[in-house]
Amino acid sequence: MSTNTAPRRSRRQETALWRAPVRRVERVTPRLARITVGGEELAGFVSAGTDQNVMLYFYPDGVELPATLEAARARWSTVRPLTRTYTIRRHDPVAHEIDFDFVLHDAAGPACDWAKHATPGDQLIFVGPSPAYQPDPSADWHLLAGDETALPAIAAILDALPPTADARVFVEVEDAAEEQPLRAPVTWVHRGAGGSLTDAVAAAELPTGRVDAWLAGERSAMVALRAHLLDQRGFDRRAVRPTTYWRRGEVGS
């Protein structure tokens, strides 16, 4: 059994409201859109890396958009935006750009609906960033597992790991068309064919030694996967970090 300490997180940066125009819209897969926002408005944004996230603010059409977090909060009693938390896929401090990946669900939701119709010039408002997970540099190997909502964070974590790091990656998506190239080999699990993330990890031959495990996705899947890693695999609970990104049956993203 591992004796890792708990996974660390970076310090929180100063929370601020950011308002930036859309620069590009790219359909990465049939069900995923990558939207790039950028401009001098983001010159002061400091990235925390890996699974850092921000809170997206969506206002009704015709509402004057706030320029600061204080202005937004001052209007909450009369105009309160719909909010959704999203992981930053990429931050380019030189070009002052940020990429967000939106899974285009069939169910309606403020973020999904906005992403489906976003065009260059549209404004995106967000607040953050959050602290970010810091991979354990003393771990013998790293386990990364999640569904498509976790792909931005998984990709960012892989970018943060040394090239020689041993990373085992499991990602559940709808089908083969939703697979993306990543920096490490991936075990792709196709939900549409009956696959599940927990079953794929349970069936895998995993390394021995000290593990650093990062997991994210739907709540019930995270509960089941964590239970497997602790109860069947015997992982140290301090080395297993599950995060719920969404809950089945709730209002869309």
TrEMBL record:
Any GO MF annotation of the entry: oxidoreductase activity
Q: Where is the FAD-binding FR-type domain?
A: 15-136
Name listed for the protein in its UniProt record: FAD-binding FR-type domain-containing protein
